[in-house]
Amino acid sequence: MTFVFALFSIYAQQVTIFGNAPDHAGRTLAFYSYDNYFSINEIKIGECSVNANGDFNVSFQISDVRHVSVVLGVFRARFFVEPEFSYEVRLPPRIDKTQEEIDNPFFEETQVYMHILSAIDNTGEKIETEKELNYKIIHFDNYFYPIHNQLVMDATRRCPASWLDSCINIFRENIIFTGNRFFDDYVFYRSGLLYFAAQREEARFVSDTFFVNRPILYHNNAYMDLFNATYDRYFMFFGQADNSIYDVINNQGSFSGLKRLLLSDEVFPYEDLCELVILKNLHDEFYSNRFSRGALLHILDSAIVHSKVQRHREIADEIRSKITRLLRGFEPPDFLLYKHDSTLVSLHDYREKYLYIMFCTTHNYVCFSQYEALKELHRRHHQWLNIVVISADEQFAHMLHFKEESGYLWDFLHFGNDPDVLRKYDVRMFPTSFFIDPQGRLVLSPAPEPVRFYEPEPTGEMSPLERALRDELNNRGLWQDYIRRGLINN
Asked: N or C: which end of the chain has fewer CB within 10 A?
């Protein structure tokens, strides 16, 4: 069950970002924003190229203020954009990732603020620097975080409550509201984090003060940070007082029943806030062992259909897509990548056979040790099994040269056309492999690597990978049939 949702509603308005950065000439700039703050899944909202003169210009639609980011080599530049605004920006200096950094899936870009040269509103008026949203937020954060961090440190030392109260009161007395609704909300909900930093106030106090009878701010990161802290592990804490939640989730698998149960508590006076808490905890509990995963998925399916709030139906679908994308029996994320012959191919192009995908580079030593094993795997099983290597080489030309020099017969795809494919498949090291059936469903996630397949033990035992292939075909009654039909070579 999949919904296709736009990032914006019928009220969406255009944002334009432009500038000149000659040292980035030839680079593609992809701008991302979170679709929700539970699955923390960034989606692309705009893309442009930097021309030979260094000029770039991109426009996209948003319905409210968004926090966007763009990866620029070793940097990740972040900033806020407002609907109907145009921004002239200065990109950070070009420092490309080294090959070692590209090969390291754990490498994290350095976070920097995007330099806003000018911001122009929908009337064509240039906003004064001190009044521009990014300037105000940066200025506020520089004031807020030292206080916040000091509170965290001193709370662990059990400083007197009076001292903690004085810190919070001084902060609140110095809050300057500006009339910019997003900024004022940002400041208000950041102040709520101080109560958590002090580690004194109960979550109920924060819930009543900051969330009950207040609008839900789905794309204000200060609101969502405090929300996630306030309602963290809510199912578990609710279960300490009323263990019927385990029956409602694990046995009934009912979204409406779960909502009725939680609404029986006075914490939630209305459904919208209750539903959002349910969605957050459905996501979080999927990665714990307290509830049945199947039941959690069933409740998500029910929320997608039965929630009265469209945004909640969207979030439920986004969460479901994230948590199932690499689960056995579900379809993995699609991609659109250039093959070594420069044709564009997708995952669906390989559905006529079983598919073994391996994410690698052509120069990584561990990856390199796999290729001869794949050669033998291809020789024996190519009639029923497609093999695809998705290469994370920096340049397409490097992959193509390796393919031509090696003479390997399976397909090599370059990740450059869809670099998000590494994130979508949660590639944290090279190699990482997956085994997919002809219907496009994951069979093994991750799958074993074939490194010892071409070097069997003296006992003649199969490698873990070939055992996995044999077991899958045996389960479907196909292994002996394939041997009989000559689809498996000796």
From this structure: C
Distance CA 181, CA 178 (A): 8
Which tens digit of pLDDT belongs to each residue from 337-365? 999 999 999 999 999 899 999 999 888 88
At 289 the three-state DSSP class reads: coil
pLDDT 10s digits, 251-283: 998 899 999 999 988 888 889 999 999 999 999
In this prediction the pTM is 0.84
CB atoms inside a 10 Å sphere around CB 161:
11
Alpha helix stretches (DSSP H) within 48-98: none
Residue 482's contacts (CB-CB under 8 Å, 6 or more residues apart) are: 384, 473, 488
* 226 and 243 part of one domain: no
Category of 316 on φ-ψ map: left (φ > 0), alpha (ψ -120 to 50) or beta: alpha
How far apart CA 361 and CA 153 sit, in angstroms, is: 44
Q: Which two tokens stand for residue 363?
A: 């120069």
Q: Is the residue at 466 inside a domain?
A: yes
Q: Of 65, 380, 398, which Cα lies nearest the Cα of 389?
A: 398
Domain identity same for 166 and 242: no
Question: How many Cα atoms within 13 Å fall on the side-chain side of residue 479?
Answer: 10
